[in-house]
adenine deaminase
Amino acid sequence: MLDQRYRWKNKKIREHVAVIDGKLAPTLLLKNAMYLNQILKKWIKAHIWIFEDRIVYVGDNLPDDTRNCEIVDCSSYFLVPGYIEPHVHPSQLYNPHSFAQYASQSGTTTLINDNLTLALHLDKKKAFSFISELRNLPVSMYWWCRFDPQTEIKDEEMIFSHANIKSWLEHDAVLQGGELTGWPKLLDGDDLMLHWIQEAKRMRKQIEGHFPGASEKTLAKLMLLGADCDHESMTGKDVLTRLLQGYTTSLRYSSIRPDLPTILDEIHELGIDQYDQLFFTTDGSPPSFYEQGITDNLIRIAIEKGVPIVDAYNMGTINIAKYYNIDYLHGNIATGRVANINFLTAEDNPSPVSVLAKGKWVKKAHALVESFPTVQWENHDISKLELDWNLTIDDLQFSMPFGMEMVNSVIMKPFSVTKDASSNQLATSHDESFLMLVDRKGKWRVNTIIKGFANHVSGIASSYSGTGDIILIGKSKEDMLLAFNRMKELGGGIVLTENNQVIHEVPLELLGQMSVKPVEELITEEKQLTFFLRERGYKFDDPIYTLLFLSSTHLPYIRITPKGIYDVMNKIVLFPSIMR
């Protein structure tokens, strides 16, 4: 990894200096550029020299040598830095490569990614080789280091071992520890987690919280324990409380928490008019949420809500870069920075017509430029889900006295089961369905009833889940088995069945979690799935997050996990999983 430690080798840096001396020509010259200078917080006209992937000069001078240099007159554009998304969950049906390419088209050229899928499903060596290959993309990709799996799994101490965490934290592409979904354990005295936080701090890396609904005292305790930022503000008051406790605060606009417009109104009502400790995130939403853009859409919302234009751009660029100590590379247009630049038609229109990423055109005059190399997935053990076991009707026995009732897309509470679940079919006159979580290796299962999911979904199987295990939901055991078998044939995916027929499927050929398709195609597939589910009685905001969070113990009140039915508030397994 030492050969990747430095962004540019000495020889390359000498070439950058040689461009200034006129001994080498820039590879790209942006003439007469009106660009956002975020130090002065003003728009300034200048010439911008770029050599390969680096800005080597910004100012009034033109280079002496322009041989073989591409020259672009920027008189009709406003230039801003490439946007940064600091909180990416890069396996929400899409994969890190496909999401990065899609994000670049709307100007988001730096991504800071959750490593949970890699940590759960790949050994450390393969995960790091994958991260290394992604360095070849035009976008800049960084990572988190998770300290917990946000559920109860059987081999947590092996996957989240001290050796693994230490290796992830030491990786130069990792910028932070967290997000801390397991913070209650930290408060309860988990000294190993506290040690990892201390190690992150020693390495000058940040700690990302996950503190929905936390009180002022709880936030103060977590700040003392090492948290730096939190993205779980749902109101303007939440933002103010976090700022007063010293947090950098990420303002969220996501599929299940589209809070940003309300938060901005409320912080303005509270008199907050300083934005340097604030930035944006979309918090890893499903594909369809990104039809209107990514960070560019959040900047647009902020401008519409009265945030000064320069501050709105800063919240999607330099504020994030400064927080993560990468502003010497990203977040502004200045000498020495990576050449990530968005070309806008107006100051208040953050969606770019052209995009440079690492000095390469990834979008030019509204058109996609094919500059993303393909990923050799198989080299990193990222392949189809291969299940060497079968599910039978005998596995579909549901006798548990209570089940999980949906409060919204992701919150579940316990309820007493009153319907007879011994038959192969449940009536469609009510909204109770069979629910099963089964080990991807076929070793265990957990069976219960879910209330509120839908009253006419006959069968759905999903390898997409918080743990990577298989979810089955439905009214008909036969259709649930059909959905499972089709999902198995696909090598992973989400399959919806009815009347002994497959009516919709979303193949997820990468670890059973991610698709190889472009995000644009996934948007269509996801929207069609949501349409079919709503047509059959699903009434909440986001079925993709419902599947993802069924096992997530960072949310109340009851969860279905690999260890069994889990009471989040009391931290106990109520009914253990059954060995097959």
